[in-house]
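debug: dumping io for the single-chain case to check the tokenizer round-trip. Nothing else runs in this session.
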Amino acid sequence: MLLQFAIYGGLAYLFLAGLAALLAAYGLEQNRPWALAAMRFASVVNLLLLPIGTVFGAYTLWLTRNQQARVLLIEEFAGRGREIPTHSTSNFWAWRTAQGVQVLLSLILVPLTASYLADHGSPTLSYGSFVACFMLAVPLGIFCHELGHVIAGKMSGFSFQTLAAGPFVVSKLSDGWRFQLGNSMGLWSGMTVMSPRRPQRLSSNAIFFVAGGPIGSLLCGVGSLALFLAGPDLHLGLVAEFFGMLGVLESINCIANLVPFAVPGGYTDGSRLMQLVRKQPEGKRFLAELAFGLSDTTTLRPKDWHPQWIQSVTEDPKSPGFSRGCYHAYMYHLDREEIDDASIWLARCMDSHKALRRDPYRWILAIENAFFEARHLKNLDAAREWLTVPRVGIPAERFTVLRVKAAVHVAEGERELAAQAIETAVRVHARSTQTGRQQFERAVLRDVQNWFDDMTGSASISRLAQALRERDSLIEVAKALEERPSPMDTIKRFLRHEP
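debug: decoded output
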């Protein structure tokens, strides 16, 4: 009876923990005021469920206590009805159904790997180790998928910029590598950003770059399943079961990514391949996004971008990449010193923090808004508000951050901090590669420096000193002309046979 009481008590406790988590999820989804309290209660209840419940319970408690994490939670679940739709309702539910089938197949096929190993006399993992390995296999599978994109991109002549797999983000910036924890797309999402080195054969290279992800998943899945099946003969022990999990997950992931669906924030690789092959408008928009990357690898400045590229990325407000398209239109006009047009496109890019939800470029877009508010709109409060956006997703270049800080400090009247930021940005530019993006950033930094000089009066002093130097040189030239003999005097001396 004691054993029965323990079993039924454990089941009841599991039911309570699951119910508390569901209520917390419902509260977050509906933006209820009691959602955070429900989250804390569910976290405390799940702490006793060793080992996974303890890990996630402690992590969730930290989320509810950390200020930036609370901002992310509020942005993640609040105001869903005000979002710009990225796909139709029918396509949305079709994607949800495919996602459910993917999870169901994983729940059915992954345990069968343990059953296969047990039938062949190979050791299997315990329950806790099984769950831990499963949680490790998911982000590792995402990494293999994104690594396939990277390898295919390198073979196509692309330059690596960012790889995001699960919570991990690694980026190669102009001043070195950057590693961070914090993927704004979610814990179970991935993304690869690369830029072409040449405009030739961009369409075919883009197709191979997109196809690299499913190919990477396929190779990882087939290789892992081969090691899993040969595990008993190779005496791999418990590692064979992990390979079985990874092989099943990656094989399913490969098939799911080839199904043409629109997903929140973008499209599957299969949908993207179809858009590129059929030369659909969304495929042209994707090619234009890649073409903008030429400014990171060549001397092509944003002001020299083809107007057709700008039109391709801004003609459909319902496109998942519309906000980034407006951002590129803003850069195009800002580099041309067309401030009014740049202001319009930046306003269309996002009119509130809601537009940044789950966008991998959220920090880059936020600090650019802070810069424009401080430099051109002279709205210091709005600039400071944009700087409160959490620094997750794709990181910004250091010289861009310094340029934004310099503009905000000048607007605040902080002369020493502004001068320090400008001086540091100049040094960073001197060590960076000469590209079109670099030339654009330097031009904008010079504008900030001129603004700073005008406010401090140093520009007037320098212009006065330059005018005085020019006046002195003009006086010296006039004296030299006065001492120089006239042509008539020269003729008279010649007629007199003077030497």
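debug: round-trip ok. Residues 79-90 have pLDDT under 50 and may be disordered.
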